[in-house]
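Quick one, tokens below:
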């Protein structure tokens, strides 16, 4: 009799990964170890351990990684002001390397040669998980059920669940027609109705934001304080990284901030329509830009903006652990020392409006910027500056 494999499965406790768990036990002759990372996705964490126990799992890991997620993954990414294709704040993308890294560590702890995940063969997450696995253990063996099994539809999944006595909640049988992913940074929605880029998402879909129409008719003013590149306080109250993001999510969510509806280019080649809720992230992005406008030199700020699309694409494509992403991070973090100070914002009906910013490290000069009389800037100097910059344009025009 062949030795049973030991596989560490990234386990959400939902229908798909529950079926994957049973499939690995049945089809791969495996002892499955489940790993559920709590990174702020909510209720499903409470159910995952019970579901794993029900399905006969002996080694169950459920770990709260919220502060690690925000401090070591979200905040470094935000220091780059990273937006994929100019819009997407990479909420799903940035969670996968953390899960993959910890999954590999658990595999080492329990003596497992295999890891598994529930990502499909058409999406980005399979790439993100597996690049993360290989970067942390080049010898690891990976099982991706969606690329192997013959279950092709939700009906197939339900039938497999019933056949193998996997409990299926009644609301899952006719489940809402969206594929969702959630963590402290965002909630994403894809699939079914959203596969038509012209159709609007139903308002009932959204989980953490109200519509702008239903947001309060009252401005909420907040002050975010930054220290060396990262936010540390809201309204003079110091908060841990995860609690700070939670608070911004609460403020943004109730004021209709953070919804995004885009068609993006997946790494595997196809276009995909995604709808996202990132309320705290949107507030934080606006505030970061404001504090950097005071504290970063023009050359440094512009170089960051030139590098940002490449940095964002690396994260989107799953290359968090690549040397080029780490090199860019060192460059980006070189600028963080002076990014300290306060930003005042008005939050109102989907809008995040900067109303003030201040910093002891500011390089903004009132004397230089004023339109009134001053004794620090000789306006005549501009004539020579312009003539030197115009020289090559004159030469081009005079040619021939």
């Amino acid at each position: 009799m062949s030795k049973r494999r030991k596989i560490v499965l990234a386990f959400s406790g939902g229908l798909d990964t529950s079926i994957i768990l049973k499939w690995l036990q049945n089809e791969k002759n495996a002892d499955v170890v489940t790993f559920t990372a709590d990174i702020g996705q909510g209720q499903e964490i409470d159910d995952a351990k019970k579901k794993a126990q029900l399905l006969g799992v002996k080694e169950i890991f459920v770990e709260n990684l919220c502060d690690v997620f925000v401090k070591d993954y979200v905040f470094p990414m935000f220091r780059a002001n990273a937006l994929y294709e100019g819009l997407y704040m990479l909420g799903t993308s940035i969670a996968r390397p953390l899960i993959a890294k910890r999954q590999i560590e658990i595999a080492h702890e329990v003596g497992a040669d295999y890891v598994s995940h529930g990502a499909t063969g058409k999406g980005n997450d399979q790439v993100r998980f597996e690049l993360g696995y290989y970067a942390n253990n080049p010898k690891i063996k990976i099982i991706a059920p969606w690329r192997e099994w013959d279950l092709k539809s939700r009906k197939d999944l339900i039938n497999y669940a019933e056949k193998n006595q996997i409990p299926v909640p009644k609301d899952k049988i006719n489940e809402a027609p969206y594929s969702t992913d959630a963590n402290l940074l965002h909630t994403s929605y894809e699939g079914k109705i959203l596969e038509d880029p012209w159709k609007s998402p139903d308002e009932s879909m959204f989980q953490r934001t109200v519509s702008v129409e239903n947001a309060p008719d009252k401005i909420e003013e907040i002050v975010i304080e930054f220290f060396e590149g990262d936010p540390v306080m809201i309204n003079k109250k110091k908060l841990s990284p995860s609690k700070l993001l939670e608070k911004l999510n609460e403020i943004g969510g109730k004021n209709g901030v953070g919804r995004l509806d885009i068609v993006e280019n997946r790494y595997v080649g196809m276009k995909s329509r995604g709808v996202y809720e990132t309320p705290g992230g949107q507030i934080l992005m606006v505030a970061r830009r404001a504090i950097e406008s005071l504290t970063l030199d023009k050359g440094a700020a512009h170089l960051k903006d030139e590098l940002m699309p490449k940095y964002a694409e690396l994260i989107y494509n799953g290359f968090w652990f690549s040397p080029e992403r780490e090199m860019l991070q060192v460059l980006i973090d070189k600028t963080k020392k002076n990014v300290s100070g306060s930003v005042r914002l008005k939050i109102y009906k989907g809008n995040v409006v900067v109303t003030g910013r201040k910093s002891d490290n500011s390089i903004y000069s009132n004397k230089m910027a004023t339109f009134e009389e001053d004794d620090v800037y000789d306006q005549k100097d501009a004539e020579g500056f312009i003539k030197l910059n115009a020289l090559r344009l004159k030469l081009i025009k005079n040619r021939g």
